[in-house]
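Researcher: Structure for this, please.
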Amino acid sequence: MNTAKKLQIVALAALSLGIASLCSAQSDAPYTEGPVWNITMVKAKYGMGDEYLKGLAKTFTGTLDEAKKQNLILDYKILLGAAATPQDFDILLMVESKNMAALDNVREKADPIARKIVGTLDQQQAIAVKRLDIREIMGSKLMREITLK
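Model: Predicted structure, C-alpha cell format:
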C-alpha cells in the first residue's frame, strides 16, 4: 500500500472518530432548550384598555389563529394585569414559535395572513396609527423557554 493511500485511511479514521465524539457530546447546561417566545409589553392609555383589547380581538387574534392553523406558530397568549408602577406595562402579548429557525422569513409568511385578516397595507397602517392613541409599546423581547434538568 502506498503512502498516499495510508494517509487517506488515517485521515478518514480520524474524521470518523471526530464526528462520533461530537455526536456523543452533551451540553453541560443545566437546562434543555424549548420553544421561543416573542413578548411585547404594552401599556394601555388610561381608560383605553378595553378599546385596545377589542381591537386585538379583531386583528391580533384573527391573524395568529390563522398563523397557528398554518403551523407558523405554536400558540399565543395575552396576559392582562395591573401595572406595578406608572411606567409599567399592563398587557403582555406572547407568541410562541417552535425555534429560532421558525422566525426566518417570517414577514413573507405573515404578510399574506395580515392582508387576508386585516386588509391592505393602507388599512393595516391606519389601524396601527389609531392604536398610537390608545396604547404604548413599552418594549419587546425574544426569549427561549427552557426546562431545568
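Researcher: Any notable elements?
Model: The chain has one domain: 31-148. The chain has a mean pLDDT of 89.
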